[in-house]
Amino acid sequence: MENILAGLCGTSPEDPLPVWVHGSVGHCFNQLTLNVIPHVILAVVSACFLGTPRSGSRVPCRPGWGWRIAISFVLAGLFLADTIPATVSPQELGPVYLAVLANGTATLTWLTHGLALLMLLKSIHGTTRGPVALALLALLPLPSLVITLVWYYQSRAAWSPAHPAASSRFAILCLQLASLLVYVIGYLLPTTGRQDLLSINRSWQQDQLVSEAGISVPDQQSVAEDGESWFSRFFYVWMNPLMKRGYQWKLNQPQDVYVLPRQLQAARVCDHSHHAQEAVRLFSVLHAAFGLRFYSLGLLKLAGNLLGFSGPLLLNLLVNFMESRQEPLSHGVLYALGLFAGSFLGALLRNQFSYQVNKVTLMVRAAVVSAIYRKALRVSSTSLTRFTGGEIVNFMSTDTSRLVNFCLSFHEVWSLPFQFGITLYLLYQQVGVAFLGGLALALLLVPINKVIANRIVMNNKEMLKHKDTRVKLMTEFLCGIHVIKFYAWEKHFSARINACRAKELQKLQAIKYLDAVCVYLWAALPVVVSIAIFITYVLLGQQLTATKVFTALALVGMLILPLNSFPWVLNGTLEAKVSLDRIQRFLELMDQDLEAYYALDSPSGTAAAMEMQCAAFSWAPAEEESTRQPLSTGTLQLHIENLLVRKGMLLGVVGKVGSGKSSLLAAVTGELIKQSGRVYVCDLEHGFGLATQEPWIQFTTVRENILFGREYDARLYEEVVEACALSEDLNILPAGDQTEVGENGVMLSGGQKARIALARAVYQEKELYLLDDPLAAVDADVANHLMRKCILGVLKHKTRILCTHRTEFLEKADALLLIDNGRIVKTGTPADILPLVEAFPKFKDMDKRRKDKAPDEQGQEEAVETEADESMQNNHLIHKEEEKKEGAVAFQVYKTYWLAVGSCLALSILFSLLLMQASRNIADWWLSHWISSISQAANTSVMVCSASPPSPELLLFSIVGLVSPIQALDTTPVPSNGSLDVNFYLIVYGSIAGANSLFTILRAFLFAYGTIRAATVIHNRLLQRALKVMVRKSRAVWGFCKSLCLDVLLIDLYCVDDSLPFILNIFLANMYGLLGMLVIITYGLPWIGLILLPLAALYFSIQRYYRRTSRELKRLYSVTLSPIYTHFSETLSGLSSIRAMRATQRFELENQLRLEENQRCLFGSNTAVQWLDIRLQMIGVAVVTAIAGIAIIQHQKQLGNPGLVGLALSYALSVTNLLSGLISSFTMTETMMVSVERTEEYTTDIPMEPQDKLVQVAADWPSQGLVEFQQVVLAYRAGLPNALDGVSFTIYPGEKVGIVGRTGSGKSTLFLALFRMLELKSGRILLDGVDSQLVGLEELRSRLAIIPQDPFLFSGSVRENLDPQGKRTDAELHEVLEQCHLRDAVTRMGESEPIELGKRGKRLSVGQRQLVCLARALLTQAKVLCIDEATASVDQKTDQLLQQTIRQRFADKTVLTIAHRLNTILDSDRVLVMQAGRVAELDSPTHLSKKDGSLFQHLLHSGQQ
What we know:
Low-confidence stretches: 192-222, 625-633, 839-884, 941-979
Main location: membrane
Protein name: ATP-binding cassette sub-family C member 10
CATH architecture of the domain at 1267-1501: 3-Layer(aba) Sandwich
Membrane topology: Multi-pass membrane protein
Pfam families: ABC_membrane, ABC_tran
Family: Belongs to the ABC transporter superfamily. ABCC family. Conjugate transporter (TC 3.A.1.208) subfamily.
């Protein structure tokens, strides 16, 4: 380096760059530092503006711009001209190379500058003076020109004819100065309507913040980052308006965030990746689409890594310079400048690298998510059953994020070993072979780390298994909470959940402790390794110097990072591989192949709408049939020999429960697997109108549900709504058809859901309609209306296939089909078939229906017991996005967590952290103290007396300090580096390091223990609340609570268990680390305080700005994330409808829009991190440069202590990482704390059931079964109309009472009141004379039995569903199954015990599920049985058998039955008719049916069921 400089400047190598020569600034110094460097800076900054986008409008040119552009090119010419005389007569004005270098640089710079100004002129800056920075930088070369001018003046060489070259150069110099003057004047010229830069930002902000999602961005609108200048891209200036909005709390919805840059927009990414064929492996698709771009980022990474090494090397040179008093000052300045340049460029490159990688990961995410979604829409239903819905949603969430994380860590895979190698080489340069001592130790730890990592992975797998079980249990518990409460099974379920949680926590604890060991090894490693290196070095007989120690310390620090990260990077890679394979398995499922499924032409000519010949279908693929577990030997096969449906006919399909009616419809739509035969459907591409048996409702408004993506046609819409008997329901709903219906239509009653699904099918105007029992869930009046107005009305010219149990409506059918066991038993006219379907109704006077309805009964099929209006009176959009909590997390939340950990424990964790950090800093300080004393001894060989003897307090931390006499330091002259000396220092250093390692492990274990404790406390609190939640406040509110509760119990608990402790740990370590660093730096260089204070203020304001915005962006990200998953799981549950109605493309587009919105927020949030990072890096650069500068000044004044300066600098090199680590970990801690906040809210905000128990009842209570209601008044919520209004009646022991009334009259509410699901406003309910309000809830509910309206089964065996507590014998269970006619169905499912019913009983048909619920009630042996429409989905034959069973089994018990089919209660002792929450009539059925004008008589006639 010295020689190069000497050659360039023509000076001696001892002092190549003299600053002061003969009383003026050295010519070489002037040219290099004051001329070349400023020009380079100006060139770089100007180049940044070369990419500035043109503005659309033509801007009239301001004269000032013209002047400046002209002057720039003139200056370029002048500097070029100056080269000629310099080369002609070189000897006169210094060396020729120097002149060529200086002038060449200047020429290029001014050319670049001129071009940049041209670009700026045509951009939006044209109306202003342009960026101030550029104008100021243009003046940087001025001092150099002035100094040269002064030099000419002093040497009088300006106008001497003897030196023509010198004279011409002087003339050129004057012209250059004049040009610069003109440049300044051009800048200062007034611009009309002067606008400051802010207004530019403002005008540009309006461009940027695009109003509505989903609208493609018009070309002239500026999008995030597109068309920005280089400068703006490097420093994220374009993010400023967004950061500002966030700071002012103006980021409230995804639309406030920038639109994605064009290359990242979901549509483009998806097209890009879909060009690659679907069948190929996912990896090769991603590789083809994004590979090149991704790999080329490796170059950035490489350059950044190399620059990272410049820090320690220059530090080494600088400390050397301070130790030797002989080196010239210019060297020090060069080293300091080198430190500045290296850290500055390194920061820029590393920052750009992470930004670009983030962009690639966004593209990968978009591609993978949309590929999974597309596949889900196309895959055949039968092969989809291999995965549960949850698993598939997991592909989209967990597995995709693992792939994305792999993209982030891929470049680490090669760069870590590379860094490792270079670091080792540099260490070798410093300490020779001694580095092997440290390396051996470090490598010893690798296998240990590997073992620990393996154990962690193993435990993690186990923990996830337990967690899955807990989640499954929890989900079922919440979905089936009604059943659990009716049967008082809470204790049993909570015990099961707690058992799972205990196992999960046990594994979590193992993981945390292993983690603690890992953390300990990680923290202790640098100290141990450096001690090993120094001991080896000293034992080899070498002498330690300040330079060596500090450079080695810095390098060891750099060595540790790759060693530790590598196992994690490998782990991440393996995880990504697993996830990739899982997604690949899903993508390789068989697609629906409609072309192979359907025949193209009908054998019977054009009249056929649908035809099947010799067709055999099954639910499982043929190759699987043989290999399937016995589990599904019960899968039904469907054999259709010959079936022809002519256009425009109404075909009725009847048959027992589970005979294959729904399967027939699935065979028509192509959802089954065709094993042989032909299927023909006319007009196939139009699709079908499908209404499934379990109606599929989307989470949107009623109108959107019906339109299903078609244009709104008022006339048709009205007609459809009227035909489906929805008009009155829409009037009741708070916002009419704009009411949101909640997830899966939770706001609606079963009947409303069925009719909305029917209306949706009708509105699509298809040719072929497949209706799967749409009449089951509605009462007689409505069923009649649907039949007349819809099926035989609006649809009369269409082809209709109707499956139903309500045979009375099939008289008008053109033909009937009787199915049993998957085969057509008989086809014929209704007259032939109906007698075969037993139990045809007794009243056939359908046509004598009374046309006049009682006025108060205007058919309001009201949402479950007046709930719709109650829950939504005030707020029709129940899409209550959880209130996006404003602002920072409240102090209260931290307090909650602190208390959950326990105050003593929390304090001891903090104290152990303090000890750990202090001991670490003291160890470093001791080293620097030792070095100083050595170098002083070496320099002066006088008594060792370091500037200040170490204070006794500092030595307390080492055991030796307490023993060895401190005075010895001051008094005894010590031979330089004598054995006593080295031993003494090394022992002290070793013992401090030992103490440090002790405190480290203490802190790690305390922390692990504390966080596990907090997790336990929080989960127990949550579960207790979940068990006691008051369920039927209202369906909507309950639906919301349910999803919130699931979220809290899944996502937030995971946070509290795992993510929060991890981040909190990092945050605390960073905080203490930063404090320790500041103490050391200010101790070493007190003057640095002057620079640290303003930087601290700057840091504070930047982080405040960032934290607010980042928090808002993260919240927006999570708010936009759940719609993607909800939409996806909704799509999965409605696949058959979406495909049958040919809406797949629209759904794909919707997914894309949702994804795009989420990606916008994610991109904003990622970029905000980079925005912060580059600013912090610049603070770091400033600190490093300042320390180096101050050190040089101190050195000149002979104040410096090289040891301390080295220490301060080696700390300063890591300042940026600490600063950004502190902010990001703090922000993440805040984000994670939101989870604690939500668990806290959940445990305080949700209404609870009363837990008191005021009276003790006998073991056999109620022994008689006497039920009395006395003036019962009850409302669903304060301020709503009473659902029961003064109800009084008595039911005597053993009596059978039927309860009838229109929907919404309060029938089900009676049961809710009896079971105390809702508390009464006034009145009493007595059982055997005991007031039910005084009995404990568990006791009360366990003594009653109920068969609820919706048959809810738990995933699991038959036993788990009938008798979860295991109180009954197998014989009893078999007997009950026999009585409920389930024995055959269950034995068909498999011989081996336990017989699994599948997820929520999916292996049984809906009717069979109701039978299981009946069996459950039969087992309870209660004296009072309540039946709520228990047989709505059961065929009439089975229904009769059931009624018989109930009569036999409950002969001596009191039975209350709510019925829709009146014939089921015609033989009861009395009938209770409810109307508008009051008892209207109560008498025997025969009396009531004969009594003229009675409500019961009206109900009987109005549509016999």
